[in-house]
Specification:
The chain has 281 residues and is α/β, with parallel strands linked by helices. It has 2 domains: 2-145, Rossmann fold (3-Layer(aba) Sandwich); 156-278, Rossmann fold. Helix content is 37%, strand content 23%. The protein has helices at residues 12-24, 55-78, 95-105, 128-136, 169-182, 199-211, 228-239, 253-259, and strands at residues 2-7, 30-38, 84-92, 110-114, 142-145, 156-161, 185-192, 217-223, 243-248, 274-278. Helix 1 (12-24) packs across helix 2. The chain is elongated, with a radius of gyration of 20 Å.
Length: 281
């Protein structure tokens, strides 16, 4: 049994992420926990039933109604799957405050969210909410689904790495789980700065390749002079990748990429699903 936490703000992007996950895990026994959070700063859509009710109660009603609607809709759109169960969670709190608690309580295996929701920041690389959530989640992978893309079973995944950090058992376990779920080929992308691999990089590379030896694997090495973000995007487009996988090492590869000034300066859009696996000792 897998537990999937789907975050929603009732935008089309959030619903599309839920639909994408329902198709990606179509053959897996799953419970989807659909979460909506609200607080006094949440915009109220408004209705004719506002008389005599306080703002928080109105927001609670809207949240409950929206969650109920999404669960009915996903069963209609995805088809009634006997392997899938949908549960709703409506909380009066800040999303980041309750996210970690729910992951622990419900033993969540994947968190799923739309990349560009109503509340996300500038339309660049990853929305502002996504970046905060990447940093907050430590115990399971995060799947980000961009915009309203149609579902396409991933066949070609790219995993980008510097080979500088050790691959923990948690990372390797989740990587093989993703490959097993999708049966996709793995394309290991090393962004070369023109320097030979150091001893620790060679060792880490051997550990990685040994852990995924039962899957179809191809290695790629690119000598790049641009930013990591742009180099990755160009590789994805050129090679026709279906999904991107990265590891979140605090203050390492992904952190550096997220801090690159160019991300806020260029029109860098991720048009494929993006999985972040948090590093965990």
């Amino acid at each position: 049994m897998m537990n999937v936490l789907a975050l929603t703000d009732f935008s089309n992007d959030a619903y599309n992420a839920l639909f994408f996950a329902s198709q990606l895990f179509k053959s897996e026994k799953c419970t989807f926990h659909v979460l909506n959070t609200y607080n006094e700063y949440t915009p109220l859509v408004g209705s004719s039933r506002t008389k005599g009710k306080k703002l928080i109660q109105l927001l609670a009603d809207e949240s409950a109604e929206g969650l109920k609607h999404d669960c009915h809709r996903i069963i209609l759109d995805a088809g009634k799957n006997p392997l899938h169960t949908y549960k709703t969670i409506s909380n009066n709190c800040d999303l980041l405050d309750c996210l970690v608690q729910i992951i622990h309580k419900e033993k969540i295996d994947f968190v799923v969210m739309g990349n560009k929701g109503k509340t996300s920041a500038k339309d660049i690389f990853l929305g502002g909410n996504t970046v905060h959530i990447i940093k907050a989640i430590k115990d399971c992978p995060l799947l980000c689904v961009p915009r309203e893309i149609d579902f396409k079973a991933p066949k070609r995944m790219v995993f980008t790495t510097s080979f500088e950090d050790n691959y923990t058992s948690f990372v390797l376990k989740n990587m093989t789980k993703i490959l097993s779920l999708t049966n996709a080929s793995m394309h290991v992308l090393y962004l070369d700065k023109g320097k030979a691999l150091q001893e620790n990089q060679i060792k880490n590379k051997e550990i990685l390749l040994r852990s995924i030896k039962n899957f179809e694997v191809q290695e790629h090495q690119i000598l790049f002079k641009k930013t990591k973000a742009r180099a990755i995007n160009e590789f994805i487009e050129k090679e026709g990748m279906d999904m991107l996988i990265m590891i979140h090492h605090d203050h390492h590869f992904l952190e550096k990429m997220l801090r690159e000034p160019v991300i806020s300066d260029i029109s860098f859009y991720l048009n494929i699903p993006f999985i972040v696996i948090p590093d965990q000792d």
